[in-house]
Amino acid sequence: MAEAVPFGAESLAGGRARAARRVLDQVVLPGEELLLPEQEDVEGPGGAGERPLRLNAGARSRLRVVCGPGLRRCGDRLLVTKCGRLRHKDPGSGSSGGVYWVDSQQKRYVPVKGDHVIGIVTAKSGDIFKVDVGGSEPASLSYLAFEGATKRNRPNVQVGDLIYGQFVVANKDMEPEMVCIDSCGRANGMGVIGHDGLLFKVTLGLIRKLLAPDCEIIQEVGRLYPLEIVFGMNGRIWVKAKTIQQTLILANILEACEHMTADQRKQIFARLAES
Amino acid sequence: MEGPMRADAKVCSEGGTESSPRGPGCSLRHFACEQNLLSRPDGSASFLQGVAEKSRERLIRNTCEAVVLGALHPRTSITVVLQVVSDAGSLLACCLNAACMALVDAGVPMRALFCGVTCALDSDGTLVLDPTVKQEKEARAVLTFALDSVERKLLMSTTKGLYSDAELQQCLAAAQAASQHVFRFYRESLQRRYSKS
């Protein structure tokens, strides 16, 4: 583009806010502002500043919209902070207006309270284990946070072990803390993961796709070989099959799933099932 | 604003050597060299060609800091590593665009996108956008701007050479118009990326 461009030729009105409802499932970029359905009437065909006169102000519904990942509240609008597809979930009942969030592809995990993650124990200091979960800080795990653990009966956790647990404290201001029991004191599948198997890393978007309720990939994989598999929301998957070769095949399939279409995947599964 | 006089004023001494321009026919920039400045490794040297090296990094950092929502990640450092594959002119603008795309790819929360645009003014006063290396060398002034995507506001500007106030405004307006193309390209390439999933 090495030629002179006449200045002032184009209007600079690129930052106009759009209605969130009309941008659903489209790619949104950081910096865009979205209007909630409530505000659409105000910015309607009358132009900026004209408000329709409402005679029964009480009937106007007050929607409470939840702002999910990738969005921030900016005045009475939503500001997009990450690039991705805008999604919306209607609430089943109740007066809230549902949840809006941005589905972005990301490799880096940021700890969120309630997420189940796979961590690697990096240090043992006194009563606390330091667990690397892929965030900016290692999470702390108390030795009493295992099922049936007491001061006399310590759990058998060594440095380098894999732990499947959930966060009880995870915000930007404090060090994340995780536990391996749920609120009733039961393990519920959490705790130390066995010594064999393979741990590998994938993007966060793929994990969410695999954990979606209607995902066929896991069912197809299960029909192929008997396997044990653990998904961590921090992008880590642990997989174990009968032989090392099967484990590696499964790991390669899961990593490649991100870029394959459904047909390609079915072809590969068919070929593997024959051999 | 860095003028040509500043290159000579910034002198690197203390065991280093420097070469000054030998005369009007010399086409090389001022450079300075320092050796054995680190004690641990077996050998080390620092070579400075022109004065642009450190300030370029500072400019990119300031632009990123203005746009990234750092308050969401306290006590965390975000490192941006830029590697020049080839320099065909407008290097700083290219670095800014690459840094913005990398931050978006990493999922770092930002309040807007940004882009870099370079303008060169030659001796007639003709404005050339996105100049090549040859055009930059022959230009009377080279101006680089970083603009944000929301309202095309100016985030950073660095200039070298002589120009008038009217020419500055003209360059800025041209850069703002050109940034539309860059942001449209960002949008298209990001849409293409997300269409695969």
Automatic annotation (TrEMBL), chain A:
Signal peptide: none annotated. Coiled coil: none annotated. GO terms for cellular component: cytoplasmic exosome (RNase complex); cytosol; euchromatin; nuclear exosome (RNase complex); nucleolus; nucleoplasm. One of its GO terms (biological process) is isotype switching. One of its GO terms (molecular function) is RNA binding. Residues 26-105 form the Exosome complex component RRP40 N-terminal domain. The keyword Nucleus applies. Keywords: Acetylation, Cytoplasm, Exosome, Isopeptide bond, Nucleus, RNA-binding, rRNA processing, Ubl conjugation. Residues 197-244 form the K Homology domain. InterPro entries: Exosome_RNA_bind1/RRP40/RRP4, KH_dom_type_1, KH_dom_type_1_sf, NA-bd_OB-fold, RRP40_KH-I, RRP40_N, Rrp40_S1. It is found in: Cytoplasm; Nucleus, Nucleolus. It holds the Pfam family KH_6. Its main location: cytoplasm. Component of the RNA exosome core complex (Exo-9), composed of EXOSC1, EXOSC2, EXOSC3, EXOSC4, EXOSC5, EXOSC6, EXOSC7, EXOSC8 and EXOSC9; within the complex interacts with EXOSC5 and EXOSC9. The catalytically inactive RNA exosome core complex (Exo-9) associates with the catalytic subunit EXOSC10/RRP6. Exo-9 may associate with DIS3 to form the nucleolar exosome complex, or DIS3L to form the cytoplasmic exosome complex. Exo-9 is formed by a hexameric base ring consisting of the heterodimers EXOSC4-EXOSC9, EXOSC5-EXOSC8 and EXOSC6-EXOSC7, and a cap ring consisting of EXOSC1, EXOSC2 and EXOSC3. Belongs to the RRP40 family. This is Exosome complex component RRP40. It comes from Sciurus vulgaris. The gene is EXOSC3.
From TrEMBL, chain B:
It holds the Pfam family RNase_PH. GO terms for cellular component: cytoplasmic exosome (RNase complex); nuclear exosome (RNase complex); nucleolus. It comes from the Eukaryota. Keywords: Exosome, Nucleus, rRNA processing. Residues 1-23 are annotated as: Disordered. Belongs to the RNase PH family. Residues 54-109, 113-177 form the Exoribonuclease phosphorolytic domain. PANTHER family: EXOSOME COMPLEX COMPONENT (PTHR11953), EXOSOME COMPLEX COMPONENT RRP46 (PTHR11953:SF1). This is Exosome component 5. SUPFAM superfamilies: Ribonuclease PH domain 2-like (SSF55666), Ribosomal protein S5 domain 2-like (SSF54211). One of its GO terms (molecular function) is RNA binding. It comes from Sciurus vulgaris. It is found in: Nucleus. GO terms for biological process: nuclear mRNA surveillance; poly(A)-dependent snoRNA 3'-end processing; rRNA catabolic process; rRNA processing; U4 snRNA 3'-end processing. Residues 1-11 have a biased composition (Basic and acidic residues).
